[in-house]
Amino acid sequence: MAAAAHAKLRLAIGFVKDRASVGKAILNKRSGLSEIEIAIIRATGHDNSPVDDKYMHEILFLVSNLPDSILFLAERISRRLNTTRDCHVALKALLLTHRLLRGGNHGFECQLRSAHFSGHLQMSPGQWFTRSSDPLVCFLHKYAAYLNERMGWIINPGGKLEPVTAPGCDFGCYRERSLELVFHRLPKCQLFIDKVLECSPYDDLPSDRLAQAAMCNTLKESFLVYTAFCEGVAALVNMFFDLTLPARVIACDILKKASQQSLKLQELYGKCKRSIRIRNLEYPSVEVMTLDHVKALEECLSNIPTGVCNSLKSTSISKHLHSGMDKLDEVRVKMEWKEREDARLKMGLSYSSASFVSWTMETKISNVWVVFEDEDAMDSS
What we know:
By secondary structure, this protein is an all-alpha fold. The chain is 63% helix and 2% strand. It has a two-stranded antiparallel sheet.
């Protein structure tokens, strides 16, 4: 009874605060901006219900008519998050940010991301929410950490999530795209999955209605990233025997982590199916890569001295990408075909493994005539 009375009192006081904040925003009478602030206050009210989509659409409509209002929107959401003492209001401010990031067009998404990286949109809970044993407060901090990582990803025209690449990084040929997928995107996918696992731990799922709504959005995005994760693992396994020695050392470390993550994702998705009230989620079938597969690959490195392996592990992946494979040819280990086949059989994997996405070569036909040196000499004679 005391808890119920306390909850009702909290809602009543929160309702009064929201009405006062709305009245203050109306008195400001700034052209268009006051409507944005009112929509933010109403979307992040003190009740325990998820963010209503009508407020998100209202904000997107108002911002589209005021192109210079993105920074104002970001600052008002940040102020709402930093000044409130109510955990539900803070969580709804993060949820609103996530919904706007998912619901806006490409231009709005880029501007909101720029506002975050420039410091106008801050997603760290305020000083009132120190880390404690309260499950909802713990989830609030983990969800904020997830959203900070999510800002480094963008929704492509196909509706899939992909990490934001630096300007000028255009991987044209098949070899460059393969390396970019394996040594750049796959580690980014693994970092993203780590944040999902921390935000939604399978051993302690939050039962709060608002927290489960946030988890639902997080799980939906993890399904998209898991597809890219599988593609990266498949490409890495297929090209492993053609990599240079430093690249193989890096690949083994990546595959070890992939093995652990696939097992944790399988457990998380299994528990979420049973405990989350939202039933319209289409969970992917997680393919678990066991550590036995990785150990079979590590046997290819067993004859290398320990000091060499340790020095190779410190090689930067980005440096490996930009310096190219040709600079590492002096340490390339050439294996016989029979040795390759034996290792593949030990792993139980092949290039056409049904557990992973296939990786096919690309053929380009050129219509440009090439004059060879001998033909040029004959013409001159």
